[in-house]
From TrEMBL, chain A:
This is Cytochrome c oxidase subunit 1. The chain crosses the membrane at residues 26-48, 68-91, 103-126, 151-177, 189-216, 236-260, 272-293, 305-330, 342-364, 376-402, 414-439, 459-481, 543-562, 568-587. GO terms for molecular function: cytochrome-c oxidase activity; heme binding; metal ion binding. It is a multi-pass membrane protein. It is an enzyme of class 7 (translocase). Keywords: Cell membrane, Copper, Electron transport, Heme, Iron, Membrane, Metal-binding, Respiratory chain, Translocase, Transmembrane, Transmembrane helix, Transport. It catalyses: 4 Fe(II)-[cytochrome c] + O2 + 8 H(+)(in) = 4 Fe(III)-[cytochrome c] + 2 H2O + 4 H(+)(out). It is found in: Cell membrane.
UniProtKB/TrEMBL annotation, chain B:
Keywords: Cell membrane, Membrane, Transmembrane, Transmembrane helix. Coiled coil: none annotated. Its main location: membrane. This is Cytochrome c oxidase subunit 4. One of its GO terms (molecular function) is proton transmembrane transporter activity. Signal peptide: none annotated. Residues 1-23 are annotated as: Disordered. It is found in: Cell membrane. InterPro entries: Cyt_c_oxidase_su4_prok (IPR005171), Cytochrome_c_oxidase_bac_sub4 (IPR050968). GO terms for biological process: aerobic electron transport chain; electron transport coupled proton transport. PANTHER family: CYTOCHROME BO(3) UBIQUINOL OXIDASE SUBUNIT 4 (PTHR36835). GO terms for cellular component: cytochrome o ubiquinol oxidase complex; plasma membrane. Belongs to the cytochrome c oxidase bacterial subunit 4 family.
From TrEMBL, chain C:
It holds the Pfam family COX3. It is a multi-pass membrane protein. It comes from the Bacteria. This is Cytochrome c oxidase subunit 3. GO terms for cellular component: plasma membrane. It is found in: Cell membrane. The chain crosses the membrane at residues 27-48, 68-87, 99-118, 138-162, 182-202. It comes from Evansella caseinilytica. One of its GO terms (molecular function) is cytochrome-c oxidase activity.
Length: 610, 116, 205
């Protein structure tokens, strides 16, 4: 049982080997922000191309690659990692835990995601990015020449494995690592939504794994699942993709719902209205999320009864979502509302998301769907739910938890300018796209003819996109100019939940003593019924910590190398990469690592000494 | 911490208590009986296909029923899903089954070949 | 921290769940199996959707042989029982028994894998290649994925047997053994559906 190693490790090595959930969370946030900027840039390029009719800013092939990579990047490499970053940092703090259940796997999940994302983007420099849309429908994808789709398949396979690992880790963490008194029905809503989203990850990602496996075997090894001339069927891919793909949108939006629940409650100075209804609605949305995927396939020709069943199931989701909307409104009702930037994002979310929900019900009407399918109406709809729900949620969460994560507050004035500019740009970009779609502009086209009533609205949409782009730059500027606003109280917003009970910056071990939870909104309860401090559930003692490890990086690197072997049919390289992977897994299995203890005296010093 | 004071590398010594031993003996008996039952169910499934006397329209659902029984035996007797404290494992496995059923059904039926 | 070593390390009734780490591993692994359920459901669905698409190649009723599948099924079923005996011995504190029964499990697993390789070899000779037809592709993918799971299970349990051949049962390796055995049972669960849905229904219907 060795003590903490005395020698100071280099900063780089520390980050490469870290298994601390807080550092892994920051890594997720940093990588996610990078990919978010990249995906945003791809969007801007597309919007420039569509600014004027028959514009020749980009060749059509590049446009196809951009639209594919924009969707893939934003969903898999930006939105999910950014949410994972917040979950990683915040969930253990919210449940009063010192760490996640599987620190090693947590780090592995991150590195798998990062290497998968890098692999996907290497395709730009290796003969062209994937060009079959983020949904990669066969036979377009299975017959697509070049290596772009191979990069898509392997990149997503690797990052998907990382996501699955992350999901299992959150589930076990939330079930097994809660502080005494933190029953399931006392958990903050963000933790609850993380829990349900992780369940969705657990059951949705295997379908994607199989879909990608089949596509890989078809493209690289000549299998014939989708080859109609060999008796294959292309609809199989659509099912597998959407069995994953539909729950995926709930994986994204439920944690955002959780973030809004925290923020609205905190800045209304009220307990969340209808806590148990909120939890129940989250669970129902999670369940229904699995039963509606075929509404993406109404025009496939499954038949009227099948379409009707999926249409009704889809419309049913509006009910639990409506419950949530009303609960947020009733939380605000009569509250002492503070219009902080975080809360502005939450307030902006409610009407924006409702608009996306309404077009969702329109799309769910299977007969009308034949008209909407594959038009800009669909593009407008999912950007309203994903930007209006997930992205606003991420920015809200960023402003809310920034002092907790980085130890300083973001500038509120800059933040509010950013909010208004972003919200304005968002509606400007996507509101007109509803009408573009209704008058018949198909999605995924690289150009359009003038004089058909599409010109003005496309120009407006592009101007909106620039507003969002400039707003994001303002956010990045805010990050740097605010660095001097050090936050040392640990509770800048007069918070309600456990993550605000610890000093800032967050100690490595989170809680010197595991807190005793006595109610929902544990800290708020102590502020009103107790002395404002959490009661300890255990005496002060040595704290066990896991050792860092470089193996997660090695395993992910091995898969990264092996992927090139698969893409270019260099079997020796593929085998070499897999040897690295299994070798590292073998080392992990054989070498026992029991971690170390931080002695009691050090914790006492940190508590009182400074 | 809860685990403080336990050495994770020291060999565990000693025998289980009498009560635990009795429980293990009971468990072994149940497991052997289940195993015999599984062999029986498997043989029955094979026979229902091998024999010409049984019509396919009966054999197909019958085989599926036998498979389901056998899997439940595996999960609850061999894998101890019935034990106390395995509630969450049950939740996840059965959730997975609930999602697996429409997955299999749609891949079988909703391929645009037969319209429903 | 010398005081820690003075604590008596007696055998708890459930050594696999005696530590928080063990409980995490136990629960996480069950969840993983939940994910695996959907994974195999996707493969089963694909197979069932494409089962009739034999193109110019042979179909299931021309290929499958009942006796071979019966033998393979019995082998895998028996290996499930031997792994159960291994865990019973672990709980009894009989470490040698644990190692012995797990070794038997590995040998049975190898026998199963041998039969499966032989089976695939035979089918290829009868004209069903991986790329022959959509039926061929989906059949090899489903049964092959199961076979890959068997191979991984064998490698995993063998690693544990070699690594811990002399250590005796500890609070660290008890959950590892337990979880590996859970994995082995799950392989058998999947096989029950494979022999029923793929082989028996392939021959009979």
């Amino acid at each position: 049982m060795s003590h903490a190693k005395a020698q100071s490790k280099s900063v780089l090595w520390d980050w490469l080997t870290t298994v601390d959930h807080k550092k892994v969370g920051i890594l997720y946030l940093a990588a996610g922000a990078f990919f978010f900027a990249l995906g945003g840039l791809e969007a801007i390029l597309m919007r420039i191309q569509l600014m004027f009719p028959e514009f020749t800013f980009l060749p059509a092939q590049t446009f196809n690659e951009l639209l594919t990579m924009h969707g893939t990047t934003m969903i898999f490499l930006a939105a999910m990692p950014l949410l994972f970053g917040l979950m990683n940092y915040i969930v253990p703090l919210q449940i009063g835990a010192r760490d996640v259940a599987f620190p090693f796997l947590n780090a592995l999940g991150f590195w798998l995601f990062l290497f998968g994302g890098i692999l996907l983007n290497v395709s730009w420099f290796a003969g062209g990015a994937p060009d079959a849309g983020w949904t990669a429908y066969v036979p377009l994808s299975s017959e697509s020449p070049g290596t772009g789709i191979d990069y898509y398949v392997l990149g997503l396979q690797i990052s998907g494995a990382g996501t699955l690992i992350g999901g299992i880790n959150f589930l076990v963490t939330i079930i097994n690592m809660r502080a005494p008194g933190m029953s399931m029905m006392r958990m903050p809503l963000f933790t609850w939504s993380t829990f349900v989203a992780s369940m969705l990850i657990l059951f949705a990602f295997p379908a994607l794994t199989i879909g990608l496996l089949l596509l890989m075997l078809e493209r690289i090894f000549g299998a014939t699942y989708f080859a109609v001339d060999f008796g294959g069927n292309v609809i199989i891919w659509q099912h597998l993709f959407w069995i994953f793909g539909h729950p995926e949108v709930y994986i994204l939006v439920l944690p955002a719902f959780g973030i809004f629940s925290e923020i609205i409650s905190t800045f209304s100075k009220k307990r969340l209205f209808g806590y148990s209804a909120m939890v129940f609605a989250t669970l129902i949305i999670g369940f229904l999320g699995f039963m509606v995927w075929a509404h993406h396939m109404f025009t496939v020709g499954m038949g009227p009864v099948a379409n009707s069943i999926f249409a009704v199931a889809t419309m049913a989701i509006a009910v639990p979502t409506g419950i949530k909307i009303f609960n947020w409104l009733l939380t605000l009702w009569g509250g002492r509302i503070q219009f902080t930037t975080a809360n502005l994002f939450a307030l902006g979310f409610i009407p924006s998301f409702v608009m996306g929900g309404v077009t969702g019900v329109m799309l769910a009407t299977s007969a009308a769907n034949y008209q909407f399918h594959d038009t800009y109406f669909v593009v407008a709809h999912f950007h309203y739910v994903i930007i209006g729900g997930v992205v606003l949620g991420l920015f809200a969460g960023a402003f809310y938890w920034w002092p907790r994560i980085f130890g300083y507050k973001l500038n509120e004035t800059l933040g509010k300018i950013f909010f208004w500019m972003f919200l304005f740009g968002f509606h400007l970009t996507f509101f007109v796209q509803h009408f573009l779609g209704l008058i018949g502009m198909p999605r995924r086209v690289a150009s359009f003819l003038g004089g058909q009533g599409l010109d003005e609205m496309n120009l407006i949409s592009t101007i909106g996109a620039f507003f969002m782009g400039v707003a994001f730059i303002l956010f990045v500027v805010n990050i740097f100019v605010s660095m001097k606003n050090k936050e040392t109280t640990g509770d800048p917003w007069d918070g309600r939940t456990l993550e605000w009970t610890i000093p800032s910056p967050t100690p490595e071990y989170n809680f010197a003593q595991t807190p005793l939870v006595r109610d929902v909104d544990a800290l708020w309860y102590e502020k009103y019924e107790g002395d404002g401090k959490m009661k300890a559930a255990e005496p002060l003692g040595d704290i066990h910590m896991p050792n860092g490890s470089f193996l997660p990086f090695i395993i992910s690197l091995g898969l990264f190398i092996a992927s090139f072997g698969f893409i270019y049919h260099l079997w020796a390289l593929a085998i070499a990469g897999m040897v690295v992977v299994f070798g590292a897994m073998f080392v992990r299995s054989v070498k026992e690592d029991h971690g170390y203890h931080i002695p009691k005296e050090d914790i006492l010093n940190a508590k009182g000494g400074k | 911490m809860a685990d403080h004071g336990m050495d994770p590398t020291a060999p565990l010594k000693g025998e289980p208590t009498k009560k635990v031993k009795r429980k293990l003996a009971r468990e072994t008996r149940t497991q052997v009986i289940s195993f015999v039952l599984m062999i029986f169910l498997t043989s029955l499934a094979f026979i229902s296909i091998a024999s010409d006397a049984i019509p396919a329209s009966f054999a197909m659902p019958f085989i599926l029923l036998l498979a389901t029984i056998q899997v439940v035996l595996q999960l609850y007797v061999f894998m101890h899903l019935n034990e106390r404290g395995n509630g969450w494992a049950n939740v996840m496995i059965w959730s997975a089954v609930i999602i697996a059923i429409p997955t299999v059904a749609s891949l079988m039926l909703l391929l645009g070949i037969v319209k429903w | 921290m010398e005081h820690q070593h003075t604590v008596q390390q007696t055998l708890p009734p459930n050594p696999e769940k005696a530590t928080l780490e063990g409980r995490n591993k136990f629960l996480g692994f069950w969840f993983f199996l939940g994910g695996e359920t959907v994974l195999f459901a996707s493969l089963f669905g694909t197979y069932l959707g494409l089962k009739g698409s034999t193109h110019t190649g042979p179909g299931p009723d021309e290929l499958f042989s009942l006796p071979l599948v019966f033998i393979m099924t019995m082998i895998l079923l028996t290996s499930s029982l031997t792994s159960v005996f291994a865990i019973i011995n672990m709980k009894k504190g009989n470490y040698r028994g644990l190692l012995l029964w797990l070794s038997v499990t590995v040998i049975l697993g190898l026998a199963f894998l041998g039969f499966e390789i032989y089976e695939f070899y035979e089918y290829v000779h009868h004209g069903l290649g991986f790329t022959t037809s959509a039926f061929g592709s989906s059949f090899y993918t489903l049964v092959g994925t199961h076979g890959a799971h068997v191979a991984f299970g064998i490698a995993w349990i063998t690693t544990l047997l070699l690594r811990y051949r002399k250590s005796g049962l500890t609070l660290t390796n008890a959950p590892k053994f337990y979880v590996a055995v859970l994995y082995w049972h799950f392989i058998d669960v999947v096989w029950v559906f494979i022999f029923s849905v793929v082989y028996l229904m392939g021959i009979g219907g």
